[in-house]
Amino acid sequence: MKLYFYLATKNKNKVREIKNIVENEIEVLLPPDFLGFPEETGNTLEENAYLKAEYLSKVIKDEYVVGEDSGLFVEKLNGLPGVNSARFSGERDDKKNIEKLLKMMEELKNKEDRKAKFITVACLVGKGEKKFFKGEIEGYITFTPRGSNGFGYDPVFEIPETGKTFAELSLEEKNKISHRTKAFLKLKEYLIKKEEKR
Asked: Which domains are delineated in the chain?
């Protein structure tokens, strides 16, 4: 029987990426349309990922449920936007979030001062599980947005080994190296091994 889990998100971009990462071996199922998720009130990515997973697991019992939270952490901004990445500007607006970030970093003219990392935490619950999987990637914040792919802060996050922003990469290219990929490949490997032991 094919392995599957329910993904605790309404973010279509995240769904697309995660399906692309694990779909060959694990099916990603979506929450019921009527379900709205609570505010992400956690102080860490782990807390928020668990909050979402736990909420959905009360509706979909005895199944694997995965919650996910990601954030951008800029070294010279003491880790901002961090856990509040999605609402950094005060609302869920990618363009406004990027504008606020670049404005805060205007004085940082040196590339080395613009170091940042993307972190994803996936939380697996259900069937007696509560386990976290983390992935991260280091890069730099660009001076202006570049590229039209991706979402969130992808247009301003440059990966050193490619010299491109996430938004300048195709989904397949991004999914070879991204923070989300690293977290979900760990989760995938864990689930497959666990099911093999049954």
From this structure: 3-197 (3.90.950.10)
